[in-house]
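Please decode residue identities from the backbone states below.
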């Protein structure tokens, strides 16, 4: 007798999420703008985590299904500014190593996003034209969490590269994308609120706790976001507790400034949607009006 196929956490998630996603009301003209969000995208192992997937999905269904999604991910640092290839079912980027083979066989066949790409290009200044990558698809900073949020892959998605780590310039990029929110587009800064990985951290039991460098930075970020202190956030390298361990390299924090720039009021405070820790790293994710 043939052994039954293993049911992974993402399979279980889809059993309940797919019917709800299929019935989810889509954004319509006249609806309030879609939020600007900062999302902890985790790593491929997110799709083995039933709790984290359910948190992301509950967030997704708390708002209308967007007309499109634009992601600025920690995993595409590229100047000049570029967008991913817009064709339907463009192959994914498997930019990770050491995971189970099944993660390298996953797909996320989102629809054609040519129209969305043209809208993004129209928002770029004349002296900083947008370039289109001929073949690059979504990296795991986009497709991993989106598989949990929108499991039907029925929303056009494009990534915009992160051309700098300068907070002011990233906020400018967010401001250019802000108008899209009024057209039903979800603007996403995709990173990880803490991303330090000292060798000792890899040996920790994943018990939902964190070392002080991670928890201290997370608490500081929570307080600065609640206070709308954009200046303090922009100076995180020199003033935030837990640095530099919380972000030995900064690419997982700086997408936050795209989120702030795309918000109607960058100092207006945030609504936290996910918090807690995974492998000692902060999952903190939030939205802004």
């Amino acid at each position: 007798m043939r052994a039954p196929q293993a049911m992974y956490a993402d399979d279980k998630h889809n059993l309940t999420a797919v019917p709800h996603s299929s019935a989810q009301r889509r954004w319509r003209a006249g609806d309030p703008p879609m939020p600007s969000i900062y999302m902890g995208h985790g790593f491929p192992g997110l799709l083995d985590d039933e709790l984290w997937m359910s948190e992301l999905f509950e967030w997704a269904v708390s708002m209308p299904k967007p007309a499109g999604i634009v992601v600025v991910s920690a995993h595409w640092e590229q100047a000049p500014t570029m967008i991913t290839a817009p064709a339907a079912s463009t192959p994914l980027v498997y930019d990770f190593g050491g995971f189970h083979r099944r993660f390298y066989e996953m797909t996320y066949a989102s629809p054609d996003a040519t129209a969305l790409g043209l809208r993004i290009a129209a928002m770029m200044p004349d002296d900083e034209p947008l370039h289109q990558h001929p073949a690059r698809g979504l990296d795991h900073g986009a497709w991993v969490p989106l598989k949990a949020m929108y499991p039907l892959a029925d929303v056009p998605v494009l990534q915009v590269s992160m051309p700098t780590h300068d907070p002011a310039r990233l906020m400018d990029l967010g401001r250019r994308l802000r108008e899209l929110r009024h057209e039903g587009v979800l603007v996403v800064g995709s990173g990880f609120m803490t991303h330090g990985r000292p060798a000792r951290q890899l040996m920790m039991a994943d018990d939902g706790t964190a070392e002080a460098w991670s928890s201290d930075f997370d608490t500081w970020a929570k307080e600065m976001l609640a206070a709308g202190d954009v200046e303090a956030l922009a100076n995180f390298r020199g003033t935030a507790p837990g640095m530099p361990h919380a972000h030995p390299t900064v690419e997982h924090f700086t997408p936050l400034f795209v989120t702030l720039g795309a918000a109607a009021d960058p100092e207006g405070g945030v609504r936290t949607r996910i918090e807690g820790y995974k492998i000692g790293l902060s999952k903190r994710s939030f939205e802004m009006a």
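Observation: Residues 31-288 form a domain with the Protocatechuate 4,5-dioxygenase; Chain B fold (CATH 3.40.830.10).
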